[in-house]
Design a protein that fits this description.
alpha/beta; 6-stranded mixed β-sheet; 14 strands; about 35% helix; globular; binds zinc ion; binds fe (iii) ion
Length: about 260
């Protein structure tokens, strides 16, 4: 039986996601940016929370965990390296571990770079990746606790997943990401079309997740650091892709 997904806005720009296994009724929240927003979404869908799967330890992803766990008794699964910040965890996981939500199974991928403990959850059968703040629609997370090459390696790992992988990220930053993307890849017709589509979606208050890996490979500059056109646009023709990525990340910080 299939999985159902529900996305909704939390706080100011965090994206809440519920993953629902129709066979067993199990439901997972990806992070808990805000307990009330997640509870509201559960009521709307008439789903009962059974799991909380945590991508990383930043406060805007874990702040609602204590309240929501207390109310629902949900099983909390968190990155091994975030054990200290998520004391409510029932299970600590790292690269290669499997996580079950009812009959749905995710593989854990270590995706450090945004922060050292960051993991992503890949539901291979459902073509679904929950990538937290590693990759965004048309963007990627900021780098902390690492060199940009660490985040670049994580993005390369995500790039190696099947092209039809749907990617849910942790924030709705798409319009600002799109403007930056156009500044370095302005002749990219696919990117221009996506920007036009996203402008309409955001005007209608729709979230721009999930995206697909194929679309990101075609338009997300942070996955295109090896592309000659992007390299030329930042004056780094022929440079190492990891160095181009670092330059792009730096430019986005100043954008
Ligand atoms: Zn974060
Ligand atoms: Fe965040």
């Amino acid at each position: 039986m299939p999985a159902a997904f529900h996305t909704f806005l939390c706080r100011t720009d965090n994206i809440g996601v519920l993953i629902h296994d129709e066979a067993t009724g199990s439901t997972a929240s990806v992070d808990v940016p805000e307990a009330e927003a997640v509870e509201r979404a559960l009521r709307e869908k008439n789903w009962r929370l059974t799991h909380i799967i945590v991508t990383h330890r930043h406060l805007d992803h874990i702040e609602g965990i204590p309240a929501l766990k207390a109310k629902t008794g949900a099983r909390v699964i968190a990155p091994k390296k975030a054990a200290a910040q998520v004391p409510q965890a029932d299970e600590l996981v790292g690269d290669g571990d499997k996580v079950k939500v009812g009959e749905l199974t995710a593989s854990v991928l270590d995706t450090p770079g945004h922060c050292a403990d960051h993991i992503s959850y890949w539901f291979a059968k459902e073509n679904a990746l929950f990538a937290g703040d590693t990759i965004f629609t048309l963007g990627c997370g900021r780098v902390s606790e690492a060199t940009p090459s660490v985040l670049w390696s994580s993005l390369q790992r995500i790039s190696a997943l099947p092209d039809n992988t749907r990617i849910w990220s942790g924030h709705e930053y798409t319009l600002s990401n799109a403007k930056f993307a156009l500044s370095v890849d302005g002749n990219n017709e696919t990117l221009k079309n996506r920007y036009a589509k996203f402008e309409k979606q955001r005007a209608a208050n729709e979230l721009t997740v999930p995206t697909t890996l194929a679309e990101e490979k075609a338009t997300n500059p942070f996955l295109r650091a090896g592309d000659p056109k992007v390299q030329k646009a930042v004056g780094m023709a022929g440079a190492d892709a990891s160095a181009v990525f670092a330059e792009l990340r730096e430019r986005k910080n100043r954008f």
